[in-house]
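Sequence only, no structure available. Ideas?
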Amino acid sequence: MILGMGKEGRDSYLALRKLFPAKILAIADKNNNLIIKDKNLKLYLGDGYLSSIGDYDLIIKTPGISLEKLGSSLLWKPSFGELTSQTEIFFDNFPGLIVGVTGTKGKGTTSTLIYEILKKAGLKVYLGGNIGQPVLQYLLKAKPEDVFVYELSSHQLQGLKKSPPIAVFLNLFSDHLDYYKNFADYHNAKANIAKYQTKNDYLIFNAKDKLVSAISQKAKSLKIDFNQDKKYYKTILPGEFNQLNIKAAVAVAGLFMVKPEIIKTAVKNFKGLPHRLEFTGKFKGIEFYNNSMATVPETTILDLQTFNGRPISLIAGGSDKGSDYSLLAKEIAKSSVKNLIILGQGTGERILKEMSGVRPPKNLDPALGGSDPRQLRYFQTSAMEEAVKICYQQTPKNGVCLLSPASASFNLFKDYQDRGEQFKKFVKRYANQKNT
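Reply:
I predicted one. Tokens follow.
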């Protein structure tokens, strides 16, 4: 049985069907409208989609289904069939070399840059995992000489009993507390990237991150602190945190003996990923940056530090994942944020509450215009179009409009990609309008 029919679940189904053309398979998903024409397929859909989970020998869980919720539902018990995942199947059967990359933030950028460097060096390298490319169909044709860069979320690491031979651990701070029972469960899931490494494996890690450093001390592998690289790499990616992502990728390249000139060129030409502090353009004297992937306060803090000293209009707020916003409020208070635009109901209210104790913002109707320039002003809207319009109206020339929500997106948007695409769409729509 396959639990969950998103992109990964569909990939699992197609791979299993190739391996077992006539075998009875099952899919369980909350979506009532799922239609797949397959006479040897059973579908369990809707609210009771987990009701028959005990009838199957092998259960492949997709990352979106929490082990905590699955266990508390009393619909799955250890006495039932084997519970596994795409990641576990891949790790157990891949004939080549896996480079696993995790961290609360930065893993997508780092994974992609590792892939680009190794590809430029002529290796047979592939990229997948949490970055949006499922892996089981690829596994069917994998060869021993292949290198696979696997971006690993905590959900994919949870329950693993094998660690990648080359592991990259970027950072660790509170996230996904709507998914895990507590931070300890999230921490333990992330720690699996190094927990089962041997003395012949490599752990490339951030020694300046106290939690990551503590996890690394328990690992048996050979350890490389990427902070030891003191070079400053020429890149279009803004922010000191991206320098750390680059250094982690360069450390991996060093294990493959990639020539320095190849690394330098790959880093220089790397344009980054969509929705990760993506430069959207400069219009009417304002620079616009889209970091819709900033779903925790710590990322937004780093973004603010990147542009501190310049007038900032910050678009923030969204759905709640259980994060603490007190440090973000303090960072906003001491930063050069002039306008705080809150998106909808949810964490924006929490940010404002925390702000009231450090630097109370002044509410300002966008229609009024003007105010004491020393005063931090805030606005609230439930539409991205209005948020962007406020940025055009209130941000001074040579200022920065920054979408860095510090929150998940599900209060107003389908996902972080939808949020970021809407931001970019309205930025460009108003760029040429004279009376914005």
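The chain has three domains: 2-84, 87-269, 278-431.
Hope that gets you unstuck.
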